[in-house]
Amino acid sequence: MKLTDLPDARGHFGPYGGIFVAETLMAALEELRVEYDRARNDPAFVAEFEYELKHYVGRPSPVYHAKRLSEQYGGAQIYLKREDLNHTGAHKINNTIGQALLARRMGKKRVIAETGAGQHGVASATVAARYGMECVVYMGAEDVIRQAPNVFRMKLLGATVVPVSSGSKTLKDALNEAMRDWVTNVDSTFYILGTAAGPHPYPMLVRDFQCVIGRECIIQMPELAGRQPDAVVACVGGGSNAIGIFHPYIPFEAVRLIGVEAGGSGIASGKHAAPLSAGTPGVLHGFRSYLMQDGNGQIIETHSISAGLDYPGVGPEHSYLKDAGRAEYVAINDDEAMAAFHDLCRFEGIIPALESSHAVAHAKKLAPTMKKDQIILVNLSGRGDKDINTVAKVAGITL
Amino acid sequence: MSRIGQTFNALKAHNKKALITFITAGDPGKGLTVPLMHALVEAGADIIELGVPFSDPMADGPVIQRASERALANKVGLKDVLAMSAEFRKSNTTTPIVLMGYANPVERMGYETFALAAKTAGVDGVLTVDIPPEESLGVSDVFKAAGLDPIFLLSPTTPESRIERVAAAAGGFIYYVSLKGVTGSADLDTEEVARKIATIRRHCELPVGVGFGIRDAATAEAVARIADAVVVGSRIVNEIETSPEDEVINRVKALVQDLRRGVDAASK
């Protein structure tokens, strides 16, 4: 079986993925699987999705040659895939449009979502407004505080934001709560899952909706640079922006695929969010994948300056690509990400999301090891306006 | 035959229904779990469900979530739960124990290692909430080979076409979740539940227990009229949470005695 043919009919990527949920959700997931299968083979659905991406999101997003940054880093040429220029400021909207169109096909009038950094919550609230649906967003109480501007955005868009105070009060707990809502309101409600994780068919359909990123790059890179990149670098929390750019590049064997996890205070400190770099396989949130867990199988608290990467699991396809050796995974610490954030601000006039800054920071390490005519393509998954409070706090500045 | 099968047969012979009671192991304290298990039996429980604490109890409502958090704060993990089960077995060799929890702690220990350890500790059945039959290929066989009954859930959303598949993987009894939602949810509609149980019985010979939404003698009686077993969890855990520590055992006993009266009233 080819790497691009996964998952299998039951949602498995080798030993990863699957459907690990309570019985009440089994029928809803089967309904979603069947409907998605019809939709993706329906030219009208595909045409509407593409129309929305072009006219509402503003796709294709450009690829940009970051010449000053490349010079500064002293090595390979760095190109940025500008997902930060999408409507709502991140790649998340690609997926929420696809899922909202599915929800509409299925006659669901209420959508729910979980969010960490708030980008997926904003993208969900946006499409709910766009298609006239009720929207409830679950967000960890700690994230509600550190991502206050996005909370206000969601409210402006008409969504209800529910702070979640259980567990570690971050993304994983928001996901637990969204699942609890779904299991209770399964007849009326569509769960817009924000990353390429969760029970089948979510990892597959989120990937499919996000693959527009990589497909565009495959066309854009030869136009702009004369060839495909030597390496593609993307940050990995749940991993949707990374799988969206990686997946179309899987058959390009000469292209290295590098996922960048949140190293927090450093892998050795234990305070990080890097399950692929330092975790072990397990089952959480409906699927099997690498996880941050202790010897008793309890999920351990994650640490990252970036709320969007602060998650103890990772999409199952990444676990598979890691084991298969097709993609490599590394970790970047908070301070390295912060330095790259400032680099991009000062040398290119782009304020990147702290999540995406992790990918830039790895390019900073990688570029000097490569030749000047080699190319690193970084997925700049989101813009950083939402993070200015966090950055100011680190710098000891009160806004 | 397993202890669970024997228990259901013995009850049937006396025209009685089973009362299955749930507590989370390690809540409110590590040392209180085994005494609480004995208290449940003394008060009339036929089967004990022992919750294995998990950091992310996705299918549970706030009451059992908090119990899980308290147990984890007491540093109770799967190995401790097995030790508690073994301790209980020293003086009770008849009441079945069903471990109820999530896949990951078991996955971490390894399914075969766990199955052997659980059997040795006197466990009779295992319900892993987030392993449906589709993902249990191998797992339920491992459990069955070790002499453990794999317990599976059916829910109001389960289509009739799936019931047989679930029943084929299951052992001991079927746990019918009476409501869409998490544990501790609102009131149940017994007429609707009765209709669903009739459908289940067409495809499955195992006894059917009903849980979710049972909170007093009256609801226990209503469910006992239509099911083989009445499962009570959140109401008991709530009693544990709200009782001062030195009164926990007596208050749980009083509650379970009341539930027992309800269950028995159904067979009069």
Choose one word for the global shape of chain A: globular
Whole-number total of structural domains of chain B: 1
Order of helices and strands of chain B: HEHEHHEHHEHEEHEHEHEHH
Distance between the termini of chain B: 28 Å
* Radius of gyration computed on alpha carbons of chain A: 19 Å
Q: Give the low-pLDDT segments of chain A.
A: none
Largest sheet of chain B: 9 strands, parallel
What is the number of helices of chain A?
A: 16
- Fill in the CATH topology of chain B: TIM Barrel
Class derived from helix and strand content of chain A: alpha/beta
Short structural description:
The complex is a heterodimer of chains A (399) and B (268). Chain A has 399 residues and is an alpha/beta fold.
What is the secondary structure topology, with strand pairs?
The complex is a heterodimer of chains A (399) and B (268).
Chain A: E1 12-13, E2 16-17, H1 23-40, H2 43-57, E3 63-65, H3 67-73, E4 77-82, H4 92-105, E5 110-115, H5 119-131, E6 134-140, H6 141-146, H7 148-156, E7 160-164, H8 171-184, E8 189-191, H9 202-210, H10 212-225, E9 231-235, H11 240-246, E10 256-264, H12 275-278, E11 280-284, E12 287-291, H13 316-324, E13 327-333, H14 334-348, H15 354-366, E14 375-380, H16 388-394
Parallel strand pairs in A: 4-14, 5-6, 5-8, 6-7, 9-10, 9-14, 10-13
Antiparallel strand pairs in A: 1-2, 3-4, 11-12
Chain B: H1 3-13, E1 18-24, H2 33-43, E2 47-51, H3 62-73, H4 78-89, E3 97-101, H5 103-109, H6 111-120, E4 125-128, H7 139-145, E5 149-150, E6 152-154, H8 160-169, E7 174-177, H9 190-203, E8 208-211, H10 217-224, E9 229-232, H11 234-242, H12 248-265
